[in-house]
Design a protein that fits this description.
four-stranded antiparallel beta sheet; globular; 118 residues; 1 helix; mainly beta
């Protein structure tokens, strides 16, 4: 019913910034929590940041203070502002609904590659 498309990844040097975008096919973020996930080679996929319909945010300890999740309801888009990037942030980043992920309905999009060089 809702399709999510990630974009905005790229190659950046350590200390740099990127802004990722997650565009939805229709309005949904006002009623559902949305999360950014990442998966690095050889590592388990992890939740990086989440935003619920009430505006409450959650961040993984490794990115707290550096990343910010936000949304633009008019554009049906969720963003992940990534500052002070580190090489260990290198991964494929995905957006998805935490409620679906928790229920093992793992429908993942293409994701967007973030590579941080040192």
């Amino acid at each position: 019913q809702v399709q999510l498309v990630e974009s905005g990844g790229g190659l950046v040097q350590a200390g740099g910034s990127l802004r990722l975008s997650c565009a939805a096919s229709r309005s949904t973020f006002t009623f559902n929590a949305i999360g950014w996930y990442r998966q690095a080679p050889g590592k388990q996929r992890e939740l990086v940041a989440a935003l619920n319909s009430g505006g409450v945010t959650h961040y993984a300890p490794s990115v707290k203070g550096r990343f910010t999740i936000s949304r633009d309801n008019a554009k049906n888009t969720v963003y992940l502002q990534m500052n002070s990037l580190k090489p260990e942030d290198t991964a494929v980043y995905y957006c998805n609904f935490p409620s679906l992920v928790a229920a093992s309905y793992d429908y993942w999009g293409q994701g967007t590659q973030v590579t941080v060089s040192s």
